[in-house]
Amino acid sequence: MSESVVIVSAVRTPMGAFQGDFASLAAHDLGGAAIKAAVERAGIAPDLVTEVIFGNCLMAGQGQAPARQAAFKGGLPISAGAVTLSKMCGSGMRAAMFCHDMLLAGSHDVLVAGGMESMTNAPYLLPKARAGMRIGHDRVMDHMMLDGLEDAYEPGRSMGTFGEDCAAKYSFTREQQDAFATASVQRAQAAIANGSFAAEITPVTVKTRAGEVQISMDEGPGKDKLDKLPTLKA
Questions:
Q1: Across-strand partners of 112?
Q2: Measured between alpha carbons, how far is 174 from 234 in angstroms, rounded to an integer?
């Protein structure tokens, strides 16, 4: 009988808002902070980690192998391998599944799995610039939309429209969806206020004009205006 696969530590950074607290940080900066904290909290030597599997959808503009950059920034040794994968919103979960299977197979003993993203820093793309646009106008493509939020098989169709399809199929009304979203935000706000999230978060230091600032709470829920929710376009 094989040995059990166990999770010995789980840590995340705070969640920043679009163009918010973490605007100056790349995804691999945030990934590195999470890796460093997770290994420290596990109480294991960094050189025991032999591979890092990290999900990341918007890789453009980060430089080669974002997961490897995160591993270095997380204090892992140069001997540790790293793989960056994309399964869209399921990227981090898929990374954990792959790590489970590798451990079960016995090819590794200690692995790090996770996910990282920075929509704020997703670049704009010039698809025809390499060959030369020669003359006339052309398009600039948003990496966040093109590779993250739009269907590859129906160009231009946004992810949100599939939610509308599901709502129609299962007869979820707009009022029900708004009520669920409101309750979700309220629970998040309450968890932030009472410190329920504190144990799972590692603070991240950000350099600003006024000096270094330590971010330790999720940014988004505190800015949400719930009275505006019913006015959002379906």
A1: 52
A2: 8
